[in-house]
Prior knowledge:
Elements: H1 30-45, E1 66-74, E2 80-86, H2 113-132, H3 134-170, H4 176-232, E3 234-236, E4 242-244, H5 245-248, H6 264-274, E5 278-287, H7 309-316, H8 326-331, E6 338-342, E7 346-351, H9 367-374, E8 392-398, H10 401-412, E9 417-424, E10 432-436, E11 439-441, E12 449-451, E13 460-469, E14 472-479, H11 486-492, E15 516-524, E16 531-535
Parallel strand pairs: 8-15
Antiparallel strand pairs: 1-2, 1-5, 3-4, 6-7, 7-8, 9-14, 9-15, 10-13, 11-12, 13-14, 15-16
Helix pairs in contact: 2-4, 3-4, 6-7
Amino acid sequence: xxxxxxxxxxxxxxxxxxxxxxxxxxxxxxLAQIAAEELQxxxxxxxxxxxxxxxxxxxSPNALGKxxxxxxxxxxxxxxxxxxxxxxxxxxxxxxxxxxPPIFDVLDTNEFYLTTEKQLNELTHKIVxxxxxxxxxxxxxxxxxxxxxxxxxxADEQSRIKQRRKLRKELGxxxxxxxxxxxxxxxxxxxxxxxKIATSKKAYQVKQHQIEKLKQQRTNLSAWAQQKIFxxxxxxxxxxxxxxLLDIFTDSTQNIPAGAGDCCAPKLLQYAYKHQLKPICMxxxxxxxxxxxxxxxxxxxxxxxxxxxxxxxxxxxxxxxxEENPLVTxxxxxxxxxxxxxDSDLLVINKPHELLSVAGKExxxxxxxxxxxxxxxxxxxxxxxxxxxxxSGILLVSKNEExxxxxxxxxxxxxxxxxxxxxxxxxLKEGEGKIELPLRVDLNDRPKQLVCYQHGKKAxxxxxxxxxxxxxxxxxxxxxxxxxxxxxxxxxxxxGLNTPIVGDDLYGKKADRLYLHAEKVTFIHPTSKKQVSxxxxxxx
Length: 540
């Protein structure tokens, strides 16, 4: 077991966790943190590989941060140690002496993948050569030019016949036999024109067929290789049972994601099971330059992703006693809604943090369900807009459909003014500003959002610093748009304020709560048509 690393720190007085952490929402146990710190020390001083993480120079164009992970394990004699892993490849290699090996090594010269990749590259080279060959380009050019010419001749003749028919109709001289003759003539003319281009068409099709045949060969070979790779990625669980990617994703509505099985957690658990090591706790952290898409900060801990890893880990952790999802536990706690204002048309409420605006898959308790019980005669969608589950503050509720539509229109046309207060985990130099980073859902790690200039929706936030105290900054946020997690991402992202909100367990560090509160709202009352404002002071 050359990959098992002994602790250099004294861990003799640290109590073991009773259960393995819920992988998709946790803060690492002390043992896992110590193992992670020791791995970071190794990364700082190692000379076994060369990789530009961008730690010394964030502006380096070749810099690339990387996710690393540690798994604290217990040997059969009770001795503790830990394993280390990296996601994907590191320094253009899948294997390094300090880290556990991949589930399947695509770069292994004894495996099929490199040979197949070579064949695929050769087919691509042949296709490109044929497509760019002067003989083919000339044949295609002649065929397309001739085809366009004769298509125009046919279209012109059709237009002339149409005009003649129109004129006959206007003069009251319709002639069915003449119409039939014209139809016959058009068919004959089309046959004649097709015959004229037959030679150039055949020459083009012969060359095109050669190319399409090669493309189909490449497609078939690529599909075969992909299926074989999926079978090679076979994962053990604590009971020693094995399932490959095809087995694991059989009943999934999603396609098997690219890179599935190459993350840290599956590698670590696989090595542990193969060597009869009991998993105790785990930690994954980012090392190096932040990403410009999803939020990844140097040395910050991150849970396993839900898209690629959750289906795999659901199998791999069978037989391991795992903590319940802390989010489910948290949402089971009873929280009170405070009514700030009420009339016959609407409610203005103060939503507590960790309460859903509308029911989720696992938790039904929400603002919507409670309002339904309190006002059974109310009609319409009720909840006019939403706040993140972890965000507290003002929420508008309609009692009838007409009120809902009027308030919704104000949100759509951005005439409603909203002010949020947040406590940021750091000090801001500027006093105010604007953040414009387009957002979309992270398909591999829902419900997280990422910055995407290609497919993201416009997201605009203005902000103003209120005060700085104890290395924390209180700010006002004024969201112009209303994207999911907009304020949280705009605060935490390195292209935004680069300072996460205190307690943001998705984009920053966990605390007793998310320090984000919808403090003030101003809108036109649907009935009185007068501007009204409501405030719910932040509880922090």
